[in-house]
Design goal:
mainly beta; about 0% helix; four-stranded antiparallel β-sheet
């Protein structure tokens, strides 16, 4: 397999096996700190939408989502690049836009508005999909915040932990934006995500500002 000549559009990052990885439209790359450049990881899939590290049994895997039209992949870190494996599940369980590891379970969205989980994602069945919010808006991120799954959409912020997603900031419904909820993150016991046209929301399990 020949390496691409550019990194392409970068969509995600991950720390795995002592290396820093980025993924995107041209595949998976890792930072070679000794030589100060990005190296292409042989054997990886292209068109990567998201990555997450998840331990199944005694093995740590890098799970690689490739969007809602392609099956996901996983990798055990073997440096020869031959151990990338494609999701064994049948449609639609092999699809993922985002991944998120939460309390011993790997979560993903397999459609634009549903999430599900699996404790053995290299081979086991995924749980029944749970619809988050209205089906007319799309999921834009999954976040492990205080060991619970939080789901961001273009117009909403939801706690999925109860099994019935709860809208935590109802006023976001009027701020629908294609960039809403993209790349949510946790920092110093609070969660942050963009909503509306030019705003960042801070969530602390008690109040949003």
């Amino acid at each position: 397999e020949s390496a691409p000549t550019t990194l392409g559009t970068i969509t995600c990052k991950a720390n795995y096996g002592g290396k820093y990885y980025i993924g995107g439209t041209n595949g998976l790359f890792w930072w070679d700190s000794a030589n100060s450049y990005w190296k292409f990881q042989i054997g990886c899939p292209r068109y990567i939408s998201y990555m997450a590290v998840f331990t199944e049994g005694s093995t740590s895997y890098l799970f690689i989502a490739c969007g809602l039209t392609r099956g996901y992949w996983f990798w055990d870190g073997n440096t020869d690049g031959t151990t990338f494996a494609k999701a064994p599940q049948a449609l639609p369980d092999d699809k993922a836009q985002y991944f998120c590891a939460v309390s011993g379970e790997l979560k993903k969205n397999e459609t634009a508005s549903t999430v599900c989980g699996n404790t053995t994602p290299t081979s086991g069945s995924w749980g029944a999909p749970i619809t988050v919010g209205d089906t007319g808006t799309v999921i834009t991120g999954l976040l492990n915040y205080k060991n619970e799954l939080y789901v961001s959409k273009t117009n909403g912020w939801y706690d999925e932990n109860s099994g019935t997603p709860v809208s935590l900031i109802p006023e976001l419904a009027s701020l629908d934006n294609s960039n809403g909820g993209v790349n949510p993150l946790s920092f110093k016991a609070k969660a942050y995500a963009p909503f509306g046209a030019q705003s960042i929301y801070e969530y602390n399990s008690v109040a949003a500002t």
